[in-house]
Amino acid sequence: MPIRTLQIPTAAGKADAFAAFPDRGEQHPGVLMYADGFGIRPVLREMARELAGHGYYVLVPNIFHRHGPAPVVELPEHIGEEVRPAVFAQLMPLIEAHTAERVLSDADSYLGFLTVQPEVAAGPVAVTGYCIGGLSAMRTAAAHPGQVAAVAAFHGPVGVDGPDLFSELTAQVHLGHAEGDLTPEALGELNQSLDAAGVSYTSEIYPGTIHGFTMSDTDAFSASGLKRHWDRLLPLLDRTLGNN
């Protein structure tokens, strides 16, 4: 599965990015994938390739492009608990600077770029994200109701913006929560807000998981959690993007 390095024009300058897609001379539905707070690294390329192998053009931008090309912060091959505090000390200023306004400004550019690529089929797209990327995915979907048909967020703080965000959603939604992030009571309250907003969704706690469970280069990784993520994500995309 080829990987293409890209530069996406944005209001804040060019954002480095990469795309993974089947190299068969065909067009495929587009998916915008937001990385977690650690940003673009080999595990994100692996996940993008995996998704592309199911018949999608997957665009992964460097969400911290205002601070330099990826990797903005040097990362070890495995982000274990012993190095996590030092890495996050470098990352937190970048995460805090990545405001909702920046997310939405960049999302306009990412979606505009994605939809004109010659390998991308006409029609709606999907957005998926991990950790803070999950919140960015939800914000992107809410801001582009006519364009985003599906959104999925995994171990992300998706309730941060409150019910006002949910009321803007027209996309079908899947939320995969870490057991370590959300109590059953908090899940019930979140799902009630989604119900009240009329969102078509599934929202569940993945058993035995902690925050970051999809990322195989961290101590939080859960093989069963990652499998469940694919088992939920792929049918959602196939159903909403008509990729059979």
From TrEMBL:
Family annotation (SUPFAM superfamilies): alpha/beta-Hydrolases (SSF53474)
All residue ranges annotated as the Dienelactone hydrolase domain in the record: 16-239
Keywords: Hydrolase
InterPro entries registered for this protein in UniProt: AB_hydrolase_fold, Dienelactn_hydro, Dienelactone_hydrolase-like
Domain of life of the native organism: Bacteria
MF terms in GO: hydrolase activity
Name assigned to this protein: Dienelactone hydrolase family protein
Species: Streptomyces marokkonensis
